[in-house]
## 1
Amino acid sequence: MSNLLDRSSIILTPTAYDNSEVLCVKPSDGSGDFSFSRATEATRINSLGLVEVVADNLPRINYEGGCGSWLFEPQSTNLYLNSETLSTQTITTTANQYSVSFYGTGTITFSGTHTGSLIGTGLNDRVTATFSATAGTLTSTVSGTVTKSQIEQLSFATSYIPTTTTSVTRNQDLCTNGGNVATISSTSGVLYAEIASLTQDDTLRLIGLNDGSTQNRVNITYNNQTNELIFSCRVNNVNEFLFTKTLADTTTFHKVALLYKLNEFKVFIDGVQENTQLSGSTFAANTLDTLDFDIGNGGFPFFGKTKCLAVWKETLSDEELAELTTI
């Protein structure tokens, strides 16, 4: 494995960051580093397992589950007030999905636009629930210890957003503009990622090589269908390669690789060769010059967790691709 990584041109791991930058392990001269933005504070689980506030425009290495990964999330608003120690309160809901989360041993009982309850399991445990509300007033009745509480209009729970006397919005994380023409080969190469989605079924979320547009790109994509990954190579706005794989659960980490070369495309997932296509064009030399956590023009940003992202300017053998993606 070390020899494989030595031959790569870009390696990103959850190791280092700066204000408005996500820093690559390789290349070490900074030419592969990403631009990062998030115009609000956010929280993460730090290496001690504690919730920690991170300043605006600082990326987050999140240690949920004990292992660090880059955490990129969509915008969300915590509608609960005084969230550190929740008291009984009401909010106005629309006919949408909502997710509730908190730490503690207490209970939130819902009435009005949704009925049910969420029961805490421990002072340091976070419990979550997602439900469909109707339009109107939702009452959350609190008993016992309920801390770091959150209710957001999303189909899944995101990281904790502290509030006091008003609701608070955390802006989305955006990570773009990594790599350059010297670190990316347009004619052949490998794009590798160890990633997990935040939810099994939401919106399109992309990672890929591109030329600053959506017309020339190599992508690994979470589809907006449950547990689907899409691998694609689009040349001059034509899909030369397109493969979709349904996984058991995209919210768990998977190691995936996409090889592209003239008349040769391959997909490996968790050590298994899932697809081979021996036809199709790639790009003219020096076409691809950017590695983005989006589609290439800012659209469909990647929201998820990333343990590793890497690029090779050469193709790898089947044995090497299997080794690279083996859990």
## 2
Amino acid sequence: MKNPARIRTGLVAALWMFMGTHVMGQGSLTPPGAPGETMHTLEEVYERTDPRTPISSLPYTINESGSYYVVSNLHSTTHGIVIETSGVSVDLMGFSLTGDGTSSYPDNDYGIYVDGSTNAVIDRVVIKGGSISGFYYGLYCEYMNNSRIEQMVVSGNNSSGVYLNGRHGQCDGNTIADCTISGNDSYGVVLSGGSGQCDGNTIADCTISGNVSVGVYLDQCDGNTIADCTISGNDSYGVYLDQCDGNTIRENTISKNTTKGIRLYHADGNRVEANNVWGTTGGEYGIQTTTGTSNFILKNTCVGNGTNYELDPDDTFGPVVEAAGELGSADGAWHPWANFSR
């Protein structure tokens, strides 16, 4: 008969041999001391979690591709941010860039300056999420293609709010979206082609108001689109196309501009569709086309302008319906391309 005491002793010894290395290797369970400081600034958090470069002072020049962000409201007595290369994203993070309000031609200061050249066209730039004021131009972009300006407030600059300059090269395929461009001392938005080209750009879902000259001015530009914008209270034209072909002006609300709502001059093959143009304050035209051919004027509504429509006979346009009350089938009221005048 086996001895129970010897069996128990043997089991205990085997258990200790099995556990020994695990039990003996744990070390002290006493904390080494009080925990250290764990709070970090917002800038430190971004630096740890996002491989973006902070912009903390102006002027600031970007000559390497990558993502950049503004860390506070910033002021400059010269240019604000200058972009000299492609593949750049600048997020203003809700902050503002302000100039000293003294810049004038020829000493022009730009809030954001995309500085391309003939042999080094800049593309794939994104500028978003803040405000610019107090410069000569809010944003001035030349030799820039396939880029985007979005969610910006551009106001109170000495000349134009946003200027895309393709006069000596190209400034094509860009988008200005969801921006507020107001109270600038000249134009709201300018697209300029001249001897170069400024083609295939889009201005969409923007509010462009209270500028001292034209709300949106296209000069020798082709194939651009202005859509779903509110363009109001500018001290000249709402939208002015000068020697521009094949552009689209669609579904905008254009109101209380001083001279004309929409004007096409020496412009061919443009499409003006489904805009609501009303209340020009200078008693002039809602929609006017002169010295152009083959423009399409369809489904617009003009109300309370001095003259609602003055259309070149070489254009194509839906019937102009002036009837009040319930619309019947007479006078083109049911025509799918009818323009309405009240």
## 3
Amino acid sequence: MLTRQERTAGLILAIVVLIVFAGFVILETLGNSNFATPYSPDTPDGTLVVLQGPVEKVTSTRSGGELILRVNGTQVFIPAGAVPETPLKTGDTLVVYGIVQTYKGEKEVMARSKGDIRYVQHGKVD
């Protein structure tokens, strides 16, 4: 049998878990677009940004799972788990959400999931 303090602690813990879960659902529903700032070369590392433009270059990494894109003059790193099923090719217009980081002295945007990469077709984001 649980004591009164244990029941109270369990109830408080359950309420906190529900609040955190509700916050997660709300933030996932809102999406990245409400929190991302437009990318610029002076954006500090760790900032969530949005970058839109044509794909100028597509390169696979040596390990073969990741992709490195050049989008609108900016390097974009896509980890293996975030590579979309639809192959990316030169000339595609994309909207990419990601975190700014500096790699080997160059600023890049790192996508975190497949949902961070969206195709623009006929002026509309898919």
